[in-house]
Structure formats: C-alpha cells, structure tokens
Specification:
Layout lengths: L3 H7 L7 H32 L4 H9 L3 H36 L11 H7 L4 H9 L3 H15 L5 E6 L4 E6 L2 E3 L2 E3 L2 E2 H33 L2
Antiparallel strand pairs: 1-2, 2-5, 3-4
C-alpha cells in the first residue's frame, strides 16, 4: 500500500513509534494477502458447486454427495475466513490511526475503529471513514463476525429459488443488535467482504494523503 521507507520519511515530523506503525502496516498488507487467498478459493468452489442444469440443482438440494458436502463445508470455511480478514483490517488500521493521528490517546486494549472515529478531528479522512463503516457491506460483515464469534455460526444451506430461476448455496438469515439480515447467496456474502476490503484500501489512500499534507506543513 506504501513503501516502508517512504512511510518512515512521512512520520519524521513527530515522535511517533515508527517501528510499531510499520508492524501495523505489514499486518494490514499480510491480512489483505490472506483475504485474497480465501476469497479466490471460495469463489472457485462456489462456481464449481453452482448447478448448471435443473437436474443438478435438484441433486444439490436433495441428494448431495459426500464430495459436494465437503465442498460446501470448504466454501463456508473460506467465506468465513474472508469475512474475518476483511473486518480485521479495520481493527489493525484503528491502531495505526490512533498512533499517527491521535498520539495514542486510545489505549491499546480498547482501540477500535469506532473509538478512533469518535476522537478524530473533522475533515476528509474522518468523513471518509464514517462513510466506509456506514455501508450495507460493513454492517453485514461486522454483524456476521460478531454473530459467529459470540453466538452461533450462520448456517449454510443448498437452495432453489423458482421465482428467480436460481440455485446454489446460501447463508441463512440472522439477527444482530435487533437488526435482521436476510438470507444471501454465497457469492453475495463474498461480495460484501470484497467491498469492505476495498473500502479500507481506499481509506488508506486518504490516510496517506493526510500524512503527506502534515509532512509538507512541517517541512515548509
């Protein structure tokens, strides 16, 4: 997302713990690589399972073989991992934001994207951050993660929708914080995770521009 030497140069304007920030940066980059792996594997399995004929659709729902059952489990595992990693990017990023923009005012143990958001000064970055975490994709991913982490797994099932002439694997609906989330096709759930991952990359670009502006102000 940014060359480390350039990142270090931008942080020279203050007494920020550069080494710790670099660790956060590396963690974000590694998490993106891990996300991409799980996303790609999930997508391949979804496309492999998706029925090509009405007969295959009926077999998927009513006569799933052990091989298909294993593929469904693998798809669920990869999609859950993709969702976890897309959401984790915001947690890691919150520590970087806290160190660079808030001088570490939020304690490490309680640092979260919501807490740093509330302490940021008004501006382009805060506005962009608020927009990113107020999307349908972020709400879904965040609620999904908290549900499977603290309550129960969100079930997966094989389904045929005769109205839309569609079949395949779906995640069941669930409820979190009094909000109901409808059942979604596996590819739709994966798309939510992709949106969340892409949004944090866009946010980092704005974060970087803010750093450049601060650097220039301190070197005029």
């Amino acid at each position: 997302m940014i060359k480390e030497e350039y990142f270090k140069e931008l942080l020279k304007f203050s007494d920020i713990d550069v080494a710790s920030c670099i660790n956060n940066l590396r963690s974000m980059s590694k998490t993106i690589f891990i996300y991409e792996y799980h996303k790609s594997e999930a997508y391949k399995i979804i496309k492999d399972i998706d029925p090509k004929t009405y007969r295959e659709a009926m077999e998927l729902v009513f006569l799933s073989s052990k091989d298909v059952s294993f593929k469904k489990l693998a798809a669920q595992a990869h999609i859950q991992s993709a969702i976890y990693n897309s959401r984790a990017l915001y947690d890691i990023f919150s520590h970087l934001i806290n160190k660079v923009f808030l001088k570490g005012s939020v304690s490490v143990d309680s640092c979260s994207i919501d807490k740093v958001k509330s302490r940021l000064c008004d501006g382009v970055f805060k506005t962009s951050l608020i927009s990113a975490i107020n999307t349908d994709s972020y709400f879904y991913v965040n609620s999904f993660v908290n549900t499977i982490k603290h309550r129960d797994l969100v079930g997966m099932t094989s389904s045929i929708d005769f109205l839309s002439d569609r079949s395949g694997i779906k995640f069941k609906g669930f409820k979190y914080n009094e909000k109901d989330y409808e059942s979604l096709w596996a590819i739709e759930v994966l798309s939510h995770s992709l949106n969340v991952k892409n949004n944090v990359i866009d946010l980092f670009d704005i974060f970087k521009r803010e750093l450049v502006n601060i650097y220039r102000e301190n070197h005029c």
